[in-house]
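[[Local backbone shapes]]
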Amino acid sequence: MAEPIRVVVTGAAGQIAYSLLYMIARGEVFGKDQPIILHLLDIPPMVGVLEGVVMELADCALPLLVEVKPTTDPAEGFKDVSAAFLVGAMPRKEGMERKDLLSANVKIFRTQGQALDKFAKKDVKVLVVGNPANTNALVCSSYAPSIPRENFSAMTRLDQNRATSQIAAKLGVPISAVNNIIIWGNHSSTQYPDAGQGKVTVGGAVKSVVEAVNDTSYLQGSFVETVQKRGAAVIAARKMSSAMSAAKAACDHMHDWWNGTAPGQFVSMGVFSDGSYDSPKDVIFSFPVEIKNKQWKIVSGLTLSDFAKTKLSVTGKELQEEKNEALSVLDSNVSNL
């Protein structure tokens, strides 16, 4: 057996973590022969619930799960971790302005960035799930200067999975027949789900999704809107936000980052922008990436339609605004210290 690796999940008493912890501990992310020590981090009011989660993990009798460490102390939570799932965040409450939400989350992700910087392994892979995920990842990275910024990413895989599922249903093919659907930009309602580079296997032949669907008004209209608004639709139906699907997407994201992508296939990850595809530099922007040896690389040279370019510009502008707001919150916090 390999040496155990330490993995932290924040918001460990919450809804998403309830599905996520089981998937990680079963070996679905890091491999079926990789023992795991799970660090469960949450806030003090959640300690009782956390104890129940620890009992349930024990009762699952999972062979790969070596140890479970519940804690409310970031120093303990992030100690020597190789991977971090940052799920815990302040949820948006009714009537809350985006700036208020950013302000609350900036404080959380500053603390976690500082703890990662001090206590985690320097090659730790950090996935931010808690919203606003892109800007939370940016803040977190800026407080962990000793960890390469390529090691911070935001989750847009849920949006990619939603989009892939819509295309598969539209064409009446299995999910596995559709790949290279892209999410560009922010994990928000300005994201651009793009089927323009997608490939689908129909009757043994590989075709472009655009050709197979053969309906531009759908691909530029209800397809985009359905994916953009899917989170709200789940809340309306379930009275709670996406949890099982978010946990599965977090697993997919980290699995591919850890193990790499298949040749010719790419996945969507929110990563630091280098200005590719005219995106604003130095924001966390979702791009198509290929992954090898735990390193992602933005897929270059894709041809974008004018429609796509317009959409990228809108989501890029929002991310720049969020970044500026987050920085102004940080500045005011610094001056208040």
